[in-house]
Amino acid sequence: MHTTELSKRHWLLILTLTLLTFVLGTSEFVIVGILTDISSSLHMTNAKAGTLVSAFAITFAIATPLVMSATSHFPKRKWMLFLIGLFIILNALCVISTSYIMLLALRMMTAIVTGVLISLAMIVASETMPISKRGLAISFVFGGFTLANVVGVPIGTVIAESYGWHATFALTTFLGGLAFLTSFFVLPNKLSQIRSSMRDQFSLLIQPRILMAFFIPALGFGATYAIFTYLVPILKEMEAPNHLISWILFGYGFISIFSNILAGKIASHNAIGRLRFVFLVQAIVLTSLFWTTNHFILGLANIGLMSLMAILLTTSTQLYLIDLARIYQPKATGLAASLMPVASNVGIAFGSALGGIVYQQENLMNITWVGGVVAVCASLLTFFSHHLDQKQKKPS
């Protein structure tokens, strides 16, 4: 691409991919809002219903890189349309699901489809845009997930309250249909197609630079989720009225929209260099909660800053992994594109677990220190990666 500006065709593709990630995000995250409805309907405990969430995340993390490696030579347009069609079928089957086992199996299959489609959307956004606009395009595509949390999940939850949880899956089926139609008419035909062996693909994963880059977003998300997972108990310790908690959570999601916009700007120039200091600021913001939550207004302002910092890393680390793959194993850019979503799921699981351990053993607010320390670790890893980048650029 020689142009440096985005055409109408570019914007149409960006909005189509954003709609796709919005649909995928709504399907993935809405289960949290309808969990109690599912447990009540299927006569099981909330804890058992919660395995629908963990099984989705685990399947997503394990299967996505495997499937991306095995299908790297597939024509991207046809493969994406097939997967969106499969997504529609799986969600439609959830509408008529009558047992936990059936729903669990469908959700695990949906996790595989979701992980691969997200990765493909990132590759398409990266390779079809002018180099200088890749960060902006990918930040929009990631923005679909933010909108899913802010808009999709609340709507899906309200529908479940009014018509039952099966109706929520009718909504995601309908949204999947919209995503298929727009993708059918907008996705370009001429997308890269690289033939490579599984050995070529997985040789990428033994590259130390790739492993380092993988753990940057994992630690970044881990820092946030060590605290965010327990945000409701924190709000209750701050004596937030029950009727305000849902509005505060909505506000948190709304602020993250601006975090997504800033993520694109950070990625526009010297992304990894900038991220070194983003993580240090994040560490200060997270540890400050230890003191600011003693005051309701200060605490809310600090939580807003926490949301603003939460996903600044996404666009930069996504592009960084793809760019590193082009250096170390050009045939494995598809696998590289799948690593950021996987890293985020690993980070969420790691951060939640670490925060939970500290929460059970110590004072609740000590989890703010955990978040801060993990953010500092992300910064140190980013400093080291940036140092290696600069060393590699210097003439020998």
Automatic annotation (TrEMBL):
<feature type="transmembrane region" description="Helical">
    <location>
        <begin position="165"/>
        <end position="189"/>
    </location>
</feature>
<feature type="transmembrane region" description="Helical">
    <location>
        <begin position="334"/>
        <end position="358"/>
    </location>
</feature>
<feature type="transmembrane region" description="Helical">
    <location>
        <begin position="297"/>
        <end position="322"/>
    </location>
</feature>
<keyword id="KW-0812">Transmembrane</keyword>
<keyword id="KW-1133">Transmembrane helix</keyword>
<feature type="transmembrane region" description="Helical">
    <location>
        <begin position="47"/>
        <end position="67"/>
    </location>
</feature>
<feature type="transmembrane region" description="Helical">
    <location>
        <begin position="79"/>
        <end position="102"/>
    </location>
</feature>
<feature type="domain" description="Major facilitator superfamily (MFS) profile">
    <location>
        <begin position="13"/>
        <end position="390"/>
    </location>
</feature>
<feature type="transmembrane region" description="Helical">
    <location>
        <begin position="108"/>
        <end position="125"/>
    </location>
</feature>
<keyword id="KW-1003">Cell membrane</keyword>
<dbReference type="InterPro" id="IPR011701">
    <property type="entry name" value="MFS"/>
</dbReference>
<dbReference type="InterPro" id="IPR050189">
    <property type="entry name" value="MFS_Efflux_Transporters"/>
</dbReference>
<feature type="transmembrane region" description="Helical">
    <location>
        <begin position="12"/>
        <end position="35"/>
    </location>
</feature>
<dbReference type="InterPro" id="IPR020846">
    <property type="entry name" value="MFS_dom"/>
</dbReference>
<feature type="transmembrane region" description="Helical">
    <location>
        <begin position="244"/>
        <end position="263"/>
    </location>
</feature>
<feature type="transmembrane region" description="Helical">
    <location>
        <begin position="275"/>
        <end position="291"/>
    </location>
</feature>
<keyword id="KW-0813">Transport</keyword>
<dbReference type="InterPro" id="IPR036259">
    <property type="entry name" value="MFS_trans_sf"/>
</dbReference>
<keyword id="KW-0472">Membrane</keyword>
<feature type="transmembrane region" description="Helical">
    <location>
        <begin position="137"/>
        <end position="159"/>
    </location>
</feature>
<dbReference type="Pfam" id="PF07690">
    <property type="entry name" value="MFS_1"/>
</dbReference>
<protein>
    <submittedName>
        <fullName>MFS transporter</fullName>
    </submittedName>
</protein>
<feature type="transmembrane region" description="Helical">
    <location>
        <begin position="210"/>
        <end position="232"/>
    </location>
</feature>
<feature type="transmembrane region" description="Helical">
    <location>
        <begin position="364"/>
        <end position="384"/>
    </location>
</feature>
